[in-house]
Amino acid sequence: MYKLLLVDDEEDVREGVFQEIDWNKCGFEVVGKAENGKEALDLVERMPPDVVVTDIKMPFMDGLKLSELVKEKFPTTKIIILSGFDEFEYAHKAVKLHIDEYVLKPFSSQELAEVLVKVKSKIDEEIAEKENITTLKEHYRRSLPVLKEAFLTSLITRKQLQKEVFERCRNYGIDLNGNGFVTGVLSVDSAYSNLSSTEASEKEDVDYSASSLLVDKELTLFAVLNIAEEIVEKHKLGLVFLYNGYVVVIASSPQKENALVLGNVLPAFEEIRLSIEKFLRITITTGIGTVVTDVTQLSYSFEDAVSALDYRLIHGSNRIICIDDVENRFMEKLRFDEMKEHKLIQCLKMGTTEEIKETVESLFEELLDNNISLKDYQVYLLEILTCILKAASNTDIDMDEVFGANYNLLSDIYRFNNLNEAKSRITDRCILVMKCIATDRQSTVKDLVEKAREYTRKHFRESDISINKVCGFLHISTGYFSSLFKKETGMTFVNYLVHIRMEAAKELLRTTDLKAFEIAERVGYSEANYFSYSFKKNFGISPSDYRNSF
Question: CB of 180 within 8 A of CB of 253?
């Protein structure tokens, strides 16, 4: 069933339409009825309907203005206009507003039912189109190369969950099976830098297309990519793609021992280097990262491969440089990666004490499970403490309260006597930061809502005050503000504004001789009739009767 809102200022027409139509048969449920555009708009914002059936001529806000505002905020909502023969000008404007259907008065229930069925079919078609599996699959197929490249990029730039990696590999048809993985980064050397003077002079005789290849970096990279792909495919080595000006190779091996993996892949990298030099007459330097046994750690291997490229300043270019040959490294280097940092920050901002304890516990389990050096241990703790400091400094909490005056991060690390003491101290600091952030957040919410109330109390007399205006003053989105305001006050902003205006109106009715239209203006209503209507709706009595009751 689709939701429908019925709007007409004439009660007999409104109720007549409601009673005479078999709504279930037409595929609709009437979720609300309104007698003017303003009341209808409030209902639409509270529970957006699929269809609005509205009269054109109504007090306070006509049907076309209502339609315009509904289409602006809820573009998928269908509009059916009810109007008389003498309203051609309105009909013309309705066409411009892309009104879905236009029903002339007087109309029979059968005529309106036919229009409703027509609109329902239109909604059905739109939903079917969005849910059309064939269309989605075709769109997915066309997007697959882009999605695949984005996935490969994510593999080398951040750590991911193993389950997600293998699931996406299946989706994209990527083979990453193996027990050992290593990343190679191919970087094009500067033109002519590795050629002899004789070879450089011979470049003048190279045909125009080859010269263009050397000049155009993108074409050069593409040419390198093609050669690398051909050789990697021949050796069934792994995957090749472009990233950040590099040609990246992710190689997999059935072995997991460092020497065996490199023994499998290095000959292929050397073949790529020699082929590029032979066919493109340019040179490349290849950085080889650490061998990892978990596909989710490829970002570490890539990071090390890029670091290996830096050593060409010492060892020269046009060669393969393995990070293990130029730096002393542990096979399984312990790292405080992006995933761990994100999890810890999330706990600090939104977690519970128990979640903090579990997160810190998991961080220290890795310290126990890895045979690491004192230096790596200190760096790991330094990164954890830095993460906590960053989370705290991004709020308005008192840093001295959490860390103490003249806190020194490095001193804290050297002060720990053992792992248990370090874990306990870090857990305590995390819990304290979490509580301070929660208190600060609650204080910020209260302050924000109070500012909104104060602004409303000062400006409620202005007829154009709205939730958008208040949010503009506070510099926050309407959706975020609406949920905060209702949670903090127990009422919507619109209801609060009406409440302020009605209380001010009651005070003026009790203490002054001002006429109703003058009071309406003073409390923010541009139309006296709508003020009277709202007053009676809120208090069950008209403004004049309220005044006479004293």
Answer: yes
